[in-house]
Amino acid sequence: MAVKPTKAQKKVAYDAKLCRLLDTYTQILVVAADNVGSNQLQNIRKGLRGDSIVLMGKNTMMKRSIKLHSEATGNNIYLNLVPLLVGNVGLIFTKGDVKEVSEVVAKYKVGAPARVGLVAPIDVVVPPGNTGLDPSQTSFFQVLNIPTKINKGTVEIITPVELIKKGEKVGSSESALLSKLGIRPFSYGLVVVSVYDNGSVFSPEVLDLTDDDLVERFALGVSMVSSLSLAISYPTIAAAPHMFVNAYKNILSVALATEYSFPQADKVKDYLKDPSKFAVAVVAVPAGGGTAPAAATKEEAKKEESEEESDTDMGFGLFD
């Protein structure tokens, strides 16, 4: 018969496992495990099996192991994990893509009933329709001010009703009604609250960023650097094109105000002396196509010929 390990031996084994995982993995997801059952957690472990390992435990034990391991190895980046271990949390060590791992974790959510005293994580709306309850159950709806009617011997809800608002505690009446209706409004699973990557800690919202979002944020950063550089006259790569253009404008202004000139300024001076040289003849083309100008030219030519013929007739009439 196998001897069960003592509590001290379990702590030593847990400490050794956590230290080994810290040395092996550089990416860690800190997940909240509120209202997550053991069976659900086991399914999550199976879904992540391969490149990821889920480790749960008491916060005090994890903090102690991390601090001792950091002192033993001289690697202080592990200490960035300590402030994240608050509440009912666990660690997911992974070598795969962090976003894909978080998506897999999000799949394993289980519906849960609205228990009395539970703080609602979302708004709960009771949809209209037949409830299947007999008329004797109308007292529940009356207490909660839900409009109903009797239809074919059963209670029917007339309009959708916002039963519980997000952040409110579930009351006994709301819990009993949702239970009778068979509605399990809440769903629970592991929720990623922080991402640790080789010493750096960031919010899980970063995982939802796309390439377009990154390009937009990078462009915004470049524009801010450029604005700052121009404001303090400090040259940077981002501000260099603007500085060259501004310098060219200043030199051009000096050239126009004085006798000094250079090839680029000569064109501007010529334009200011005689703008008509740079005028471009614009021919209006109708939307129908390009045949209209040619047709108009032919009509004008015919008109001129007819005028010439009329002048000739008047010049050689009966009075000659």
**Range of helix content:** 40-55%
- Tell me the name of the CATH class of the largest domain: Alpha Beta
DSSP strand content? 15-25%
- Largest sheet: number of strands, sense, barrel closure: 5 strands, antiparallel
The CATH homologous superfamily name of the largest domain equals Ribosomal protein L10, N-terminal RNA-binding domain
Low-confidence stretches: 307-320
Adjacency order of strands in the biggest sheet: 2-3-1-11-12
Rg value = 40 Å
Question: Separation of termini?
Answer: 147 Å
Number of helices: 10
Number of domains: 3
SSE class: alpha+beta
> What's the total number of strands?
12
Judging from the principal axes of the Cα atoms, what is the shape? flat
Elements, N to C (H/E): HEHEHEHEEEHEEEHEEEHHHH
Give me the CATH fold name of the largest domain: Alpha-Beta Plaits
In CATH, the architecture of the largest domain is 2-Layer Sandwich
Write down the overall mean pLDDT: 81
Structure description:
With 320 residues, this protein is α+β, with helices and mostly antiparallel strands. The protein folds into three domains: 7-109 and 189-208, Alpha-Beta Plaits (2-Layer Sandwich), CATH 3.30.70.1730; 124-184, Ribosomal protein L10, N-terminal fragment, domain II (Molybdopterin biosynthesis moea protein, domain 2, Alpha-Beta Complex), CATH 3.90.105.20; 211-275, no CATH class. It contains ten helices and twelve strands. β7 and β8 (154-157) form a beta hairpin. The chain is flat and about 100 Å long.
